[in-house]
UniProtKB/TrEMBL annotation:
Its main location: membrane. This is Permease. Keywords: Cell membrane, Membrane, Transmembrane, Transmembrane helix, Transport. It is found in: Cell membrane. It is a multi-pass membrane protein. The lineage of its organism: Archaea, Methanobacteriati, Methanobacteriota, Stenosarchaea group, Halobacteria. InterPro entries: Azg-like (IPR045018), Azg-like_bact_archaea (IPR026033), NCS2 (IPR006043). The keyword Transmembrane applies. GO terms for molecular function: purine nucleobase transmembrane transporter activity. Pfam families: Xan_ur_permease. Belongs to the nucleobase:cation symporter-2 (NCS2) (TC 2.A.40) family. Azg-like subfamily. GO terms for cellular component: plasma membrane. The keyword rRNA-binding does not apply. It comes from Halovivax ruber (strain DSM 18193 / JCM 13892 / XH-70).
Length: 494
């Protein structure tokens, strides 16, 4: 391997050697485009996460919050907009910390950020429904992160993930693919809600978002079919530019297919230390109701564990990282990234950090090493000073990437033995439950529970390990607790 030179693709010897470009058959240009693709696909979290966490801090549901509403944090009064700005900075910093661990320690091309679903659970279930103070909820996320760090360090997380039934591991990629398709089509309004059938085909002639989204999707798919390098990035950017041009030309009003003035963050409250002080206070409040606190920690732990495991396995499958048993070699390293990110993020003021399924967009563009993640982290860091630019990209445009990658990830079904009932049932449930419940964790749970039961029905119970039975029972127990929480049978009192 040459040192200090380029190979014609622009990658220097030092970087190539550190990230093992030769081993993975990649180069600097490919990794950079992949990183940009992943960032654009997940940049929406910079705007969305603060808007989901802020109501927890304000102590009100979103529809009750007015722009000028105030709250007290560490003895200081802040308006709603300032709370959102602080959370924007925290979201970016938590993502950067986790991504740096992924890039420099794990050398994997995965992006991380505060997880969608997990942030909603934090706000709407834990804080607003159960009545857990947001400071204590942050403490629960912090404890979850510490537990993850310990379990990852001793190899316990890897052991549990390797217990996943083989058909479930090979079905995760396809399941995430259908999940991405469902999410992407919803965001570009090609699929919309329906009171009778739950979902239906969106009307492109009536919805500007659907029209613009479908046009952008067709363009991106054609670029991909032509083998154009960076097709997903080009598709996202051209769709965004087209949306703004249509807005400036007066074809649509501002806010229809482009962010409103309020949605584009023009200034940032960089001092988030008041949130840190409140987090410290939350640690001291744990003993007020330790049973409910333990319940919250367990719930965060379960959902994050399975979401991260499913994402790592699914994205690794399309990247060709899995071994013959469907396991990801050295999985402890990427697992440590989300554990560290979760711990640091909670201390700063945000919910659980996890690996993003949008990483599949960058992997599809050829990202194979930690340099892809490093580019994602650098772009997140840059967004600290370029927040207005990032927030100006229409959210629907970024979801085009999910549709394209979702189609590609369906290739995972070819690895499943559909003639074997144990494989067909557990894999089929894993694939379908994910999009139908909009949860990777639920899909994994369906496969994990069904596999030992079907194997036993076939008279092959001896093929199911004790660990797999224990895992299935633990999953069933979790859902018993989860449904009790959702029913409001548990409350937090001070």
């Amino acid at each position: 391997m040459s040192s200090g030179s380029t190979d014609g693709q622009g990658d220097t010897g030092g970087i190539a050697e550190y990230f093992d470009f030769d081993e993975y058959g990649t180069d600097l240009r490919t990794e950079t485009i992949a990183g940009l693709t992943t960032f654009l696909a997940m940049a929406y979290i910079i705007v969305v996460n603060p808007s989901i966490i802020a109501p927890a801090i304000m102590g009100e549901y979103p529809d009750a919050i007015e722009p000028g509403m105030t709250t007290t944090i560490n003895g200081e009064t802040f308006v709603y907009g300032e709370v959102v700005q602080m959370l924007t900075v925290v979201t970016i910093l938590a993502s950067v910390i986790a991504i740096l661990v992924m890039a420099l320690y794990a050398n994997r091309p995965f992006g991380l950020a505060p997880g969608m679903g997990l942030n909603a659970f934090f706000t709407f279930t834990v804080v607003l429904l159960l009545g857990v103070p947001w400071q204590v909820a942050l403490a629960a996320v912090f404890v979850e992160g510490i537990v993850f760090i310990v379990l990852t360090a001793v190899g316990a997380r890897r052991y549990i993930i390797e217990l996943f039934p083989e058909p479930v591991k090979f079905a995760v990629g396809a399941g995430i693919g259908v999940f991405l398709l469902f999410l992407g089509f919803q965001e570009i309004q090609v699929v919309t809600g329906d009171p009778e059938t739950l979902v239906t085909l969106g009307n492109v002639l009536q919805s500007p978002v659907a029209a613009a989204g479908l046009a952008g999707l067709v363009l991106t798919l054609l670029l991909y079919a032509r083998g154009i390098t960076g097709s997903i990035v080009i598709g996202i950017l051209l769709t965004a530019v087209g949306a703004w041009l249509a807005t400036f030309a007066g074809l649509v009003e501002r806010g229809t297919i482009t962010p409103t003035e309020e949605e584009v963050v023009t200034s940032v409250q960089y001092d988030f230390t008041p949130l840190v002080y409140e987090f410290v206070d939350g640690l001291g409040m744990i003993t007020e109701d330790p049973l409910v606190f333990a319940l919250v920690v367990f719930t965060f732990f379960f959902v994050d564990f399975f979401d991260t495991a499913g994402t790592l396995i699914g994205v690794s499958q399309i990247g060709g990282f899995l071994d013959q048993e469907g396991d990801l070699p050295d999985i402890d390293k990427p697992l440590m990234a989300d554990a560290v990110g979760t711990t640091a993020g909670a201390a700063m003021g945000t919910s659980t950090v996890t690996t993003y399924i949008e990483s599949s967009a960058g992997v599809e563009e050829g990202g194979r090493t930690g340099f892809t993640a490093l580019v994602v982290g650098a772009l997140f860091a840059l967004s600290l000073v370029l927040v207005p630019v990032v927030t100006a990209i229409p959210t629907f445009a970024t979801y085009i990437a999910l549709v394209v990658v979702g189609i590609i990830m369906l290739q995972g079904v070819a690895d499943i033995d559909w003639q074997d009932p144990a494989w067909a049932i557990s894999a089929g449930l894993t694939i379908t439950v994910m999009p139908l419940t909009t949860s990777i964790a639920n899909g994994l749970a369906a496969g994990i529970i069904s596999y030992p039961l079907v194997k036993s029905a076939k008279g092959e119970a001896r093929d199911v390990s004790i660990g797999q039975w224990i895992l299935a029972v633990a999953v069933v127990a979790y859902y018993g607790v989860y449904f009790a929480v959702q029913a409001g049978d548990v409350t937090f009192t001070l």
